[in-house]
Amino acid sequence: MKNSSWQQKELIFLVLYAVVFYTIVIRRSLQLSHDHYAKLYGLRPGWIAGRLNDASDAQWRNFRGNLPILTMVFGIFALVANVLKKSFSLKAKGMAIVWILISLAYLFYLHGACILFIIAIASANFFLVKILGRTKYFSLVLWLFNLSFLVCNRIYEGYQFSIFGQRWAYLDNFRGTFRWQICFNFVVLRMISFGCDYHWTDQYNRFDRKKHIQHCDHCSSGKTCYLLLQEKRVTNDKFSFPIYLCYLVYAPLYIAGPIISFNAFASQLDSPQNIYSSREVAWYGFRWVCSLFLMELMTHLLYYNAFAISGLWKQLSPIDIFIIGYGVLNFMWLKFFLIWRYFRFWSLINGIVAPENMPRCVNNCHNLESFWKNWHASFNRWLVRYVYIPLGGSQKKLLNVWVIFTFVAVWHDLEWKLLSWAWLTCIFFIPEMLVKSAANAFPVEGAFMEFVFRELRAVAGAITITCLMVANLVGFVIGPSGINWLVSGFLQKEGLPTLGGLLVSFYVGTKLMFHISEAKQRKERTR
Q1: Helix or strand or coil: residue 45?
Q2: How far is CA 263 from the centre of its chain?
Q3: What is the DSSP string of 298-336?
Q4: What is the residue range of the signal peptide feature (predicted)?
């Protein structure tokens, strides 16, 4: 009872601190945006209270600008696909052909004649899988094939038709509106998934279906969760070329995902998802619209990304650099949240459920493992299934993180700053894994030791959040050349109070996350 009373008082203090912290951050952000807007790049006329809008991020600018036509196109696609399905009672192969025709029309608009490159590489991968899929060294061949194209596509910038002779050179004038080699990164993941799922069909499946159904809220109520769809072995007839091609180019998930395994996709062509009701899908869409309005408020009032793009952050004080860096991380989270949920929403309308990419807020992750499980979560699932477990899983965890994050960096793009981000993340990951192993080896006993352990976890969380900010700023904002400047700025006399203040703030934030997690656990126990 005494412990509960202390935790309630602590929670009140933590909430009050968080209110003060965000009041200071938002107020200072507004002031910085007002004082420096004339020097910032990428600001355009907005629609809220005469304010300029931060359109400095190319990815968000393109998505936002194309949102009306995307919505109209996907609305027509969904209507056509669902009407044909109900009218002709189409099953897997029938729906695969419908979605191939719809998706290829979509891809032709995006990539023009370059669609030929996609079909050619995809076909070569299909025949590779069918010919070598049951052999011992197939996994190695599959990875080498796909990694080769992943790298070559970027080096040769999507290739030119003229390399096949001047008679084909005229096709270079019809390359569409969107570079195909960018989208092809997702196609590579799907081709690997198809190959591995085919290779594993005759192997022993360690997944305990009965145990999972007993412990899963969705499956125990008669629904089918994504994990069960992924681990469910599909029949050999599903590994046909029409279903394979449909999986690679499925329009709602083609541009940005979320990433779905072949098993899960093929399973839902026959039996559409039953996790979400129509009402829940509509509510999902409404929440997305509310989140879009929040983004509009953010980009009209707080010019975080414009500061990063303009390089003006180098002229600011340490505390202002922290505020801009923290704001950029939140902007990036909300941007990807909106993009991924938009495409997932359209996939749900068409009966295909994909993993949620941002299941948890970026401000509710206090260790690296939980952060990466909840940032691009579908990619994390893909990496665990097709890279982490085949490489030995937790038995070789210290080695696996280097392989995984190097692959993630190369998959994103061939840039040194992304490799720097990947290797910095690995360096920060190793101490966390060692501490977790030590903590598991020595169980905590007694109230005092529990208190000490909780405080140490909070301190570790504060340090981890700081490291995450540094790694992401290096990878996506300042680049490796800015590391020395950033470190020296915060370790000087002027920067030390800011460093201490942000560590205290992250310590408080971590303890607040503990309370949120414990409240969720209590709620689950009362079900």
Answers
A1: strand
A2: 20
A3: HHHH--HHHHHHHTGGGGS-HHHHHHHHHHHHHHHHHHH
A4: none
Residue in 62, 25, 492, 518 with CA at minimum distance from that of residue 256: 62
Q: Is 77 within a domain?
A: no
Residues 436 and 477 in one domain: yes
* Cα–Cα dist 155/158, whole Å: 8
- Domain with 422, as residue range(s), is 2-58+279-525
* pLDDT (tens digit per residue) in 428-477: 788 777 777 776 666 667 777 778 888 888 888 888 888 777 776 766 66
What is the mean predicted confidence (pLDDT) over 335-354?
Answer: 95
- Is residue 299 one of the residues assigned to a domain? yes
**333 contact partners, CB below 8 Å, separation of at least 6:** 358, 361, 362, 375
Q: How many residues does the chain have?
A: 527
In a domain, 67, yes or no: no
Q: Can you tell me the distance from the alpha carbon of 276 to that of 376, in angstroms, rounded to the nearest whole number?
A: 21
Residue 95 pLDDT more than 90? no
Structural domains of the chain, count: 2
Asked which of 212, 238, 271 is the last residue of a domain, the reply is 271
In 3D space, the residue among 294, 322, 297 whose CA is nearest the CA of residue 32 turns out to be 322
Task: Name the one residue in this structure whose structure tokens are 């009218």.
Answer: 87
Neighbours of 130 (CB within 10 A): 14
End of a domain among 240, 271, 302? 271
Distance (Å, rounded) from C-alpha 175 to C-alpha 180?
Answer: 8
Q: Do both 288 and 242 map to the same domain?
A: no
Instruction: Tell me how far apart the alpha carbons of residues 99 and 160 are, in angstroms, rounded to a whole number.
Output: 28
Write the single-letter amino acid at 264. A
- Interval 268-285 mean pLDDT: 90
490 and 344 part of one domain = yes
